[in-house]
Amino acid sequence: MQYDDLLQLVAKRRSVRAFKSDPVPDEYIDKIIEVARWAPSGANTQPWEFVVIRNKKLKEKIVDILAEDEVTSHKMEMTREPELRHPGPANRKPGARPNYANAPVLILVCGDHRTKEGMTVNAIYNHGPDGLQHFASGLASAFLYIQLAATSLGLGSRWVSAVNNPLPQVQIKQLLGIPKEVMVYDMTPIGYPAPLPASEQRMRARRKAEEMTHRDGYEKAKYRTAEQIKEFLKKVHGREGARLGGKN
Ligand SMILES: Cc1cc2nc3c(=O)[nH]c(=O)nc-3n(C[C@H](O)[C@H](O)[C@H](O)COP(=O)(O)O)c2cc1C
Question: Whole-angstrom Cα distance, residue 168 to residue 69?
């Protein structure tokens, strides 16, 4: 693969928040997981377990659990300074179904805490509580590989982080029989993306490479004040808000 192919793939990947209900072949899910298992992980501990949900009733139950959690999430978001509110939960309409509800497949990326024993003592004791940093970084890598593989197959995906909020975590684990040592890290719906409105296609803010690259030390001129960061976040959330259209 050439650099330009890679750049094209990563630029094509985006968080898909509206799906068609068209079926996704099993073979594609296998291909996605084949890619994910090559992800890097601390000390090659490979903490991941992928729980693939296709069963309609199970999917509905998971969506119900998360819809309920979104109500709480909305209330929590409304306690924040208005300008910094995340547009997803903040704009949530009462009774709205999560926008991945009709995706044909859900993949839960889970991590087995016991694999942390295989990391270096430094990683276990110093990198976040109980080695959580390395553990989560490995899971995040696998998650991203899933997203890239899905993109290469013409499929959409997105992070549904609410699965690791305390109540949904317990509810989903009970529903699916996930053992207590195994954490539900995150979830992605997998499905064919619904066409994006033209306005949304333009909304994809990224900082410029030059602004974030520091050569031979941290370049003071590029140090951002807290105010600048806040301004930046407001801008991003403003655009994202338009992109989400209050439907998340
Ligand atoms: C750790 C992490 C958690 C995220 N959680 C959510 C989420 O719960 N819901 C959601 O809609 N997007 C979530 N996202 C997606 C981001 O909002 C998205 O990546 C960002 O807005 C950039 O847009 P893009 O992915 O289309 O490039 C998450 C992304 C990351 C890396």
Answer: 7
| Single pTM value for the model | 0.93
Closest residue by Cα to atom 29, ligand 1, is 159
CA distance 192 to 22: 7
Task: Output the CA 242–ligand 1 centroid distance in Å.
Answer: 15
- How do residues 56-77 score in pLDDT, each as one tens digit? 999 999 999 999 999 999 999 9
CA dihedral 60→63→69→70, nearest 10 degrees, is: -130
Q: What is the pLDDT of residues 149-188, one digit of tens each?
A: 999 999 999 999 999 999 999 999 999 999 999 999 999 9
What are the two backbone dihedrals, phi and then psi, of residue 25, each rounded to the nearest 5 degrees?
Answer: -60, 145
120 C-alpha to ligand 1 centroid (Å): 30
Domains along the chain with CATH numbers: 3-196 (3.40.109.10)
Per-residue pLDDT at 128: 83
Q: Which atom of ligand 1 lies closest to the CA of 160?
A: 8
Which residue's CA lies nearest to atom 9 of ligand 1?
160
Closest residue by Cα to atom 28, ligand 1, is 159
Q: Is 88 in the pocket of ligand 1 (CB under 6 A)?
A: yes
Buried b (16+ CB within 10 A) or exposed e, 141-164: bbbbbbbbbbbebebbbbbbebbb
